[in-house]
Write a structure and sequence with these properties.
The protein is α/β, with parallel strands linked by helices. It has two domains: 239 residues, Rossmann fold (3-Layer(aba) Sandwich); 242 residues, Rossmann fold, CATH 3.40.50.300. The protein contains 14 helices and 18 strands. A six-stranded mixed beta sheet has the order 5-6-7-3-8-9, with helices on both faces. A five-stranded parallel beta sheet has the order 15-16-17-12-18, with helices on both faces. A four-stranded antiparallel beta sheet has the order 11-10-13-14, covered by helices on one side. It starts with a strand and ends with a strand.
């Protein structure tokens, strides 16, 4: 069988980053591959090399399918015209949402500023017949009139995939397509991907760090470890060879968390002096135009409780959290009490955030300056995103220690935008913990992490919550990601 792509003794020319040894492998037309590896192993980098993003110091990459494409045109063509990569660590990467509110994608006044689904898809329409087929495959007909900023994560992924497919690529690479999706949406997406492989002329690669996300229709798994390519395997052989392992946090780091200095709550302003109520929602409703996102939400959270917030994509979980953090402009028109104070009674945004540590998948898009990773962690001390305050030496040491806790001490001087998505996630997690907050809000904290790091982060959360005056709210679509310390659950229902 003639290969679709062949790589021979490849050594990429990438400053400060390279694979440990030259690598060789080929892919045949009709194969469906998974590049699998831990965070920072090099799997995403490998997909970028295949796309032709980087030059080579040695070896060669052959694209036999390009001969077919060259026969159709007299213009110069290059691989990235026919190989499309879709990254899902930020589902909003294809459009500029920097004008929207931080931690909140949309508000009632801004919805009309953004294009509809049909506007976005028509930009790349090749012919009407193909457009109709793609929209049908991804079940987007009922969403054509929706503004893209109002879409759920699952809907956005379908839009991203459809937008790329309209350009009629020969290969599509999906980087972590299932992260942050509920079970029903994950299954829908797997069905869509399988349908793509069966009904189109596409060669497909999935880049994954979670072995139980590998769909059954995968034909080959290419393990990537420590910047090395391991021998390819069938899906069955790879799954059979998976071994579980104990990745307990080193004892000295666990003890450091347990022995963090206890705050004197009696000296803290804007915080309940005798424990008790941390958060209260009284019949909270959020609407955007004719859409109701949250309806009559009543919710009480007391000090020391550990909540799991669950629900389908689009049920309003991120919106609810944005109300807690006062990042949603509608939070001041709602009956919300935080730390014993009614929202809108004279408190500043800094008083609200002083006791809150927060992380979410959408925070990746807030850091557009390529700063050292330790500076990203340090921004959590002052709750800054675009405005960075220089930490004192003792604060910087605390940042380093939290990076040791999360296993990323070795990347503290690397710039944030050059890290893998998993390494970025660990930096943002360290940012949420760095000021030892009384209320910890974790929106999909294990988003895009490999097995080892998921286990490590779960243990860190558990240890942190064993300390007095600590309250957490955690969002996840995976039951197995919830730490053992969870005491309460609330499930949001999607308003239709």
């Amino acid at each position: 069988m003639n290969p679709f792509i062949s790589l021979h003794a490849v050594v990429p020319r990438i400053p400060d980053v390279t694979f440990a040894v030259p690598f060789t492998f080929s892919m045949n037309k009709g194969d469906v591959w998974t590049f699998y590896g831990e965070n920072g192993s090099g799997k995403t980098l490998l997909s970028e090399i295949i796309c032709g993003k980087y030059g080579l110091s040695a070896g060669s990459i052959e694209y036999p399918f390009m001969d077919e494409e060259r026969a159709k045109t007299t213009q110069f063509i290059y691989p990235r015209q026919f190989i499309k990569t879709i990254h899902f660590q930020s589902t909003y990467s294809f459009s500029d949402f920097r004008d929207a509110y931080y931690q909140q994608r949309f508000n009632v006044y801004e919805v009309d500023w953004y294009p509809t689904v049909e506007d976005v898809l028509r930009q790349d329409a090749v012919d009407e017949g193909w457009w109709q087929q793609v929209v049908s495959v991804f079940r987007l007909f009922n969403l054509l009139s929706h503004r893209i900023i109002t879409l759920s994560s699952g809907q956005l992924r379908r839009l991203l995939m459809a937008k790329a497919l309209l350009e009629k690529p020969r290969m599509m690479i999906f980087d972590n397509p299932f992260i942050g999706l509920d079970a029903n949406t994950r299954n829908l997406l797997k069905d869509l991907l399988e349908r793509l492989t069966q009904t189109t002329n596409l060669t497909v690669i999935l880049v994954l760090s979670k072995y139980d996300d590998i769909p059954e229709f995968i034909t080959h798994v290419l393990p990537v470890k420590d910047m090395r390519l391991l021998p390819k395997q069938t899906r069955e052989d790879f799954i059979h060879g998976i071994t579980t392992f104990n990745t307990s946090l080193p004892h000295e780091l666990a003890e450091w968390i347990r022995n963090l200095p206890q705050k004197d709550i009696s000296t803290i302003s804007f915080y309940p002096q005798n424990g008790g109520e941390i958060l209260r929602f009284n019949n909270v409703c959020i609407r955007y135009g004719n859409r109701t996102i949250l309806k009559d939400i009543c919710w009480n959270v007391n000090e020391g409780e550990r909540w799991a917030l669950q629900g389908q994509n689009g049920a309003g979980k991120s919106t609810l959290l944005s109300l807690v953090c006062a990042d949603n402009p509608q939070s001041y028109s709602c009956d919300i009490h935080l730390f014993g104070h009614k929202r809108g009674t004279g408190e500043s945004i800094w008083q609200i955030k002083r006791h809150i540590g927060y992380v979410s998948p959408e925070m990746h898009r807030a850091y557009l300056r390529d700063l050292p990773a330790i500076d990203i962690v340090a921004s959590g001390l002052s709750d800054s995103v675009g405005l960075y305050c220089r930490p004192r030496p003792e604060q910087r040491e605390v940042c380093r220690q939290w990076m040791r806790v999360f296993g990323i001490a070795g990347i503290q001087d690397k710039t944030f935008l050059k890290l893998s998505s998993g390494e970025q996630r660990l930096c943002l997690l360290a940012r949420a913990f760095v000021k030892d907050p009384e209320l910890l809000i974790l929106d999909e904290p294990l988003h895009g992490l490999d097995l080892k790091n998921r286990q490590r982060v779960r243990e860190i959360i558990k240890l942190f919550c064993q300390r007095p005056h600590k309250t957490i709210i955690m969002v996840t679509h995976y039951q197995e990601e919830l730490p053992d310390c969870v005491t309460h659950r609330m499930e949001l229902k999607k308003n239709l």
